[in-house]
Design goal:
Blueprint: E1 3-10, E2 15-20, H1 23-31, E3 44-54, H2 56-67, H3 71-79
Antiparallel strand pairs: 1-2, 1-3
Protein backbone atom coordinates (compact mmCIF):
# COMPACT_ATOMS: atom_id res chain seq x y z
CA UNK A 1 0.00 0.00 0.00
CA UNK A 2 1.34 3.43 -0.96
CA UNK A 3 1.29 6.23 1.61
CA UNK A 4 1.24 9.96 0.89
CA UNK A 5 2.69 12.87 2.81
CA UNK A 6 0.70 16.05 2.30
CA UNK A 7 0.63 19.70 3.35
CA UNK A 8 -2.57 21.70 3.55
CA UNK A 9 -2.83 25.48 3.48
CA UNK A 10 -5.07 26.47 6.39
CA UNK A 11 -7.44 29.44 6.71
CA UNK A 12 -5.23 31.04 9.39
CA UNK A 13 -2.26 31.04 6.95
CA UNK A 14 -0.54 28.05 8.59
CA UNK A 15 0.53 24.79 6.99
CA UNK A 16 -0.66 21.40 8.25
CA UNK A 17 1.35 18.25 7.45
CA UNK A 18 -0.06 14.73 7.56
CA UNK A 19 0.05 11.25 6.02
CA UNK A 20 -2.64 9.11 4.44
CA UNK A 21 -3.32 6.35 1.94
CA UNK A 22 -6.14 8.33 0.30
CA UNK A 23 -5.66 12.08 -0.24
CA UNK A 24 -9.21 12.85 -1.38
CA UNK A 25 -10.83 11.01 1.54
CA UNK A 26 -8.49 12.58 4.11
CA UNK A 27 -8.98 16.12 2.79
CA UNK A 28 -12.75 15.62 2.94
CA UNK A 29 -12.40 14.43 6.54
CA UNK A 30 -10.50 17.61 7.36
CA UNK A 31 -13.19 19.70 5.65
CA UNK A 32 -15.88 17.90 7.67
CA UNK A 33 -14.03 18.57 10.94
CA UNK A 34 -13.22 14.90 11.50
CA UNK A 35 -9.79 13.60 12.37
CA UNK A 36 -7.10 16.10 13.28
CA UNK A 37 -7.87 18.39 16.20
CA UNK A 38 -5.72 21.00 14.44
CA UNK A 39 -8.73 21.87 12.29
CA UNK A 40 -11.04 22.68 15.22
CA UNK A 41 -11.58 26.41 14.66
CA UNK A 42 -9.56 26.37 11.44
CA UNK A 43 -10.57 25.47 7.90
CA UNK A 44 -8.43 23.61 5.36
CA UNK A 45 -8.10 25.63 2.16
CA UNK A 46 -6.25 23.36 -0.27
CA UNK A 47 -3.56 20.71 -0.55
CA UNK A 48 -0.36 22.53 -1.52
CA UNK A 49 2.18 19.69 -1.44
CA UNK A 50 2.25 15.90 -1.76
CA UNK A 51 4.82 13.12 -1.85
CA UNK A 52 3.90 9.57 -2.79
CA UNK A 53 5.31 6.05 -2.92
CA UNK A 54 6.12 5.74 0.77
CA UNK A 55 5.39 2.82 3.05
CA UNK A 56 3.86 3.55 6.47
CA UNK A 57 7.21 3.75 8.20
CA UNK A 58 8.97 6.02 5.72
CA UNK A 59 5.89 8.26 5.50
CA UNK A 60 5.91 8.73 9.28
CA UNK A 61 9.63 9.52 9.31
CA UNK A 62 9.27 12.00 6.44
CA UNK A 63 6.22 13.63 8.06
CA UNK A 64 8.20 14.18 11.27
CA UNK A 65 11.10 15.67 9.29
CA UNK A 66 8.80 18.08 7.43
CA UNK A 67 7.09 19.15 10.66
CA UNK A 68 10.51 20.18 12.03
CA UNK A 69 11.14 22.53 9.08
CA UNK A 70 10.66 26.27 9.45
CA UNK A 71 7.81 27.92 7.58
CA UNK A 72 10.28 29.29 5.02
CA UNK A 73 11.78 25.83 4.46
CA UNK A 74 8.28 24.42 3.96
CA UNK A 75 7.51 27.15 1.41
CA UNK A 76 10.69 26.24 -0.48
CA UNK A 77 9.65 22.58 -0.47
CA UNK A 78 6.24 23.53 -1.86
CA UNK A 79 7.87 25.53 -4.69
CA UNK A 80 9.96 22.53 -5.87
Amino acid sequence: MSWFIYMIEVSDNTLYTGITTDLDRRFKQHLDGKGAKYFHGRKPVKIVYTESNHDRSSASVREAAIKKLTREQKKQLIKC
